[in-house]
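sorry to bug you again but im stuck and you know this stuff better than me. below you get a single protein, a line of residues and a line of whole numbers that encode the local backbone shape. mainly i need to know what kind of three dimensional shape the backbone takes. anything you notice is useful, everything is just below:

***
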Amino acid sequence: MQNQPLLLSSLLQFAERFHARTEIVSRTVEGPIHRYTYGDAARRTRQLASALAQYGIEQGNRVATLAWNNYRHFEIEHGVTGLGAVWHAINPRLIPAQIGYIANHAEDRVLFLETTFLPLVEKLAPDLATVEMFVLMADRSSMPKASPLKNLQCYEDFLQSGDPDFRWPVFDELSASSLFYTSGTTGNPKGVLYSHRSDVLHCLSISGAYSMGFTANDTILPMTPMFHANGAWGFTHAAPMVGAKLVLPGPMLDAVSIAELIFNEGVTVTAGVPTLYTKLLQELQQQNRGAGALKRIVVAGSAPAPSMMEGFERLGVSVNHVWGMTETSPCGTSPQPSRKVTRQSPQAQLARKTMQGQPIYGVDIKVADENGAEMPRDGKTSGRLMVKGPWILSGYYREEKPLLEDGWFNTGDLAVIDDDNYVQLTDRAKDVIKSGGEWISSIDVENLAAGCPGVAEASVIGIPHPQWEERPLLVVVPSASKPATAKDIFTFLNGKIAKWWMPDDIVFVEALTYGATGKVQKMELRRRFAGHYASRKSA
């Protein structure tokens, strides 16, 4: 057999050779829609890689981005990794101090940024110790007349200095490809360093029929940002691998803008977090013209509410609820209906879809006790969710502290696995509620509450209780029209959960706070309402 290294540059090379006329469509920061093809993208990406090499970027150097999902970001991702340098996609939703920390921790040499983030970077620049050059992702007409940034370049001018006939280098497939940092809910964000081999294997696995099932006939719209876990969950790798049309939404992730792209571009598959899908479903229902060409959605980040899943199913859109994290590149599980499940009732099948699916090839999973011993796969016994595989983290970037337990990575999730190997998260270890010595799943309660008419969003937290150690508190954002009352919600939940799982109280808020990765900031809610039950008793 021929021995060819698995390199990310092969993805765009393949797309250029066999799918050169397939479109990449982007909504830009400036507003207009940009269109070009994989052939165009491949030529410009080679130019960019050549320009970086001429500047002095070498294999292993870190090149950072502060950018949305668009064609220039796509070029940077593939140009930097193809050159053998390391693409470091920074999450702009982190607080400025964390952005500065990770840029210095990574020792980024170049920072590409959208015009959106120019004011932020100008403030941070004095503290960015290793950044030598800033490249504004714009043409010359959008360049500022003056800026305190030293060595600020125009993207289009910088790109034109490169050679479009640049030849991709060949190197060890175990070389680093990209660097992503966790959202840092506790302490500083931690770096996860992917390799070319792990990325290509991950891409092959998620593209298979048993996972996402991508083909050249698909039009893929990743709503999840490219700065989340490996380039929009690996979708910017998968699209050129299979030759699918790629639609990049830019900074406009509101439901109206996403629906417009779905209808105008013939989108067949999307990826995003439940909060985006809840709003998109409402918009599609309001427009009352179906879901266009949309056939399936991929949802992850947190557990979707059954009511949201049912809503999309009624529109003829299948829901692929997957599980993963930055440390797993990110995909670890995907729904793979067994022969047994396909013979079950629609209600039973929906219940399966609310679970996290089954391990995809390349990922081994077990539920373990505190000593690492595997627990029964009976769908009842909960334990620590442990994973291992060729695209699973072995250690955090520049941290020498041992991370794995006998080769297994502890995800921090609690889960059960049933006899069909379906994984169901029972909670994050930090979010599970212990009441009177018994455990309550916050996920199960909030998913049910979200299905109550008049509830827009729901979150369940455990807070101190003078008698029961902790009790659940339900925090609700009511719907704008016909908002639910506490009585409505309690009535809706009655009989659907055990009585001792029932929240002792419901509080209404105008909005929930979401973190950098689109998850509810439960830590903030726990701080905010820590004394709620104590104050009720004293009152």
Q: What stands out?
A: Residues 38-55 form the longest helix (18 residues). The mean pLDDT is 93. The radius of gyration is 24 Å. The first strand starts at residue 23 and ends at 27.
